[in-house]
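Batch manifest, entry 17 of 40.
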Amino acid sequence: MSSTDSRRGGAASPRGGRKPAGRGPWAVLCAALTVLLGPAALTASALDQANAAPMHHPRVTP
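Output type: structure tokens
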């Protein structure tokens, strides 16, 4: 068995041919912020759309 990965032409890593993923501290921080701020941004967008809509005035019957 050779030490190169024939599919990609690169050297195989010691962990079964997989290259380490880029899961550094910045990637973890970005993922956490996306999870926390994603729903807030969606809610703010929906509220902006609701505020831009014309006001509803119910009919007053005498």
